Amino acid sequence: xxxxxxxxxxxxxxxxxxxxxxxxYSYGATPYLFWYVQSPGQGLQLLLKYFSGDTxxxxxxxxxxxxxxxxxxxxxxxxxVHWSDAAEYFCAVGGLNTGGFKTIFGAxxxxxxxx
Amino acid sequence: xxxxxxxxxxxxxxxxxxxxxKCEQHMGHRAMYWYxxxxxxxxxxxxxxxxxxLSINESVPSRFSPECPNSSLLNLHLHALQxxxxxxYLCASSQVGSSGANVLTFGAGSRLTVL
Lengths: 115, 115
What we know:
- The complex is a heterodimer.
- By secondary structure, chain A is mainly beta.
- Chain A has strands at 3-5, 10-14, 19-21, 24-26, 32-38, 44-50, 56-58, 64-68, 73-78, 87-97, 100-105, 109-114.
- In chain A, strands 2, 5, 6, 10, 11 and 12 form a 6-stranded mixed β-sheet that branches. In chain A, strands 3-9-8-7 form a 4-stranded antiparallel β-sheet, with no helix packed on it.
- Chain B is mainly beta.
- Helix content of chain B is 0%, strand content 56%.
- Chain B contains no helices and 11 strands.
- Chain B is globular and about 40 Å long.
- Chain A binds chain B through residues 32, 34, 36, 41-46, 49, 51, 90, 94, 97, 99-108, and chain B through 4, 31, 40-45, 48, 50, 55-56, 88, 90, 92, 94, 96, 99, 101-109, 111.
């Protein structure tokens, strides 16, 4: 069974500062990894995904993430945070299970942006 | 059309009521999902339909009854719910296949309150 750990419940950064959100996963095979973002009261939007190939993946809104198999990590980064980036960020891992494909989400990291 | 539409956006029901949540997509996706999200928690998978057949039921209580009448529609029938079932219910869809299976497109959710 797959699992995801996001060790930071919340993070506060100043606008214009860089950002890194941590994610560690557990999965027996090659994982499908994702970062989703959720604004209050809304659904989730895909930021980026990793399936295979280049371990540094680019996403929407200037986000990127790096897959490190040796560390079982898939950290999300952004060089310069904007106030509109304040939201909940979920790391997720997907894989085949009995019955079909399942995507499991980490607990989430709430990002606060200071002016 | 790249949207997943959920209705109603808000629903208040008593413990003896019967109601339904509806979800519609026109992206040609053949997998559809129900997730439940409590406040400040990640989405938790409830059901997965693949090609209109229920493929995963995450041991959800029978007071929740999913239905997939066709490839574009997904319903969640609610009956005799408990106050602890109050949550945001998210519908998602995806392609089915090795490369696209896990990229979920979410609706905005239905906020359910059980009195």
